[in-house]
Amino acid sequence: MDKAGLKIDWATHKAAKYACENWHYSKTMPVNKTVKMGVWEYGIYKGCVVYSCGSAGVRSINKTYGIKKGCVVELARVALRDHIFPVSKIVALTLKILKRTQENIRLVVSYADPQQDHVGVIYQSMNWIYIGRSSKDFVFIDTIGKRWHSRSVSESGWKVHCGVRRKCPKPSSMTRVSIPPKYKYLYPLDAAMREQILPLSKPYPKRAVSIENDAPAIQQDEGGVIPTTALHE
Fold first, then answer.
1. Residue 188 CB burial class (10 angstroms; 0-12, 13-18, ≥19)
2. Which of 117, 118, 192, 227 is the most exposed, fewest CB within 10 Å of its CB?
3. ∠ CA(110), CA(116), CA(117), 5° rounding?
């Protein structure tokens, strides 16, 4: 999809991984199945938007609200370097592509991280539905300062993600740290789903920062829970 200088197209795993590791505050690529969309401005690669299925956030929405499995994905990363077009426009275009190409998906969930001083004003500007805070959680910090979600570590040294067995750190070798609940937002992709989730809506959380200031050059305001390959390769 090309909109006069802004191009959104499928990204390779390598390109998306580079963007996430260099231009997103988590410095990680999601390990679950993903849909990866690249962002180009006037022919220059500016980063990616990554949607993930199978994450804890998706499973929670399925279970809590009785939404059929496979109908929900998480907006897990918006990893951009310096860019011209607004983040809201970039994300809106990826949502249109998602709706057109992934017909089974009806709902998108995403989170704003208060530890990054985010409340989700980009989501608010796009009329996402705010449904409250996530559950309390914790992470593990390794010896070089990298954060690992509790579901990404094991005392055995191995975890299975999407049917693939991978090495992982042991929690006993790291420091456990509690983290505050995140702000949770939903975006319905059809009218029936919007009607279903609208009763969950709560007033938007606020802070004294403008929408423009909430989208820094190296974009960090969107992008999901701590590390949550592909629906599209």
1. middle
2. 192
3. 95
**What is the C-alpha separation between 19 and 125, in angstroms, rounded?**
24
The tokens describing 55, both together, are: 């994450």
- Report the length, in residues, of the chain: 233
Give yes or no for a contact between 74 and 110, defined as CB atoms under 8 angstroms apart: yes
* Cβ neighbours of 205 (radius 10 Å): 16
Contact status, residue 15 vs residue 45, Cβ threshold 8 Å:
yes
Regions in the chain scoring below 70 on pLDDT: 1-3, 54, 161-163, 208-233
CATH code 3.30.450.40 for 2-133+182-214: no
Amino acid at 92: A
Other C-beta atoms closer than 10 Å to the C-beta of 231 total 17
64: which 2 tokens? Answer: 């809590």
- The SS3 of residue 93 is helix
Surface-to-core class of residue 204, CB atoms within 10 Å of its CB (0-12 exposed, 13-18 middle, 19+ buried)? middle
Domain ranges of the chain: 2-133+182-214, 137-179
Predicted pLDDT of residue 186: 96
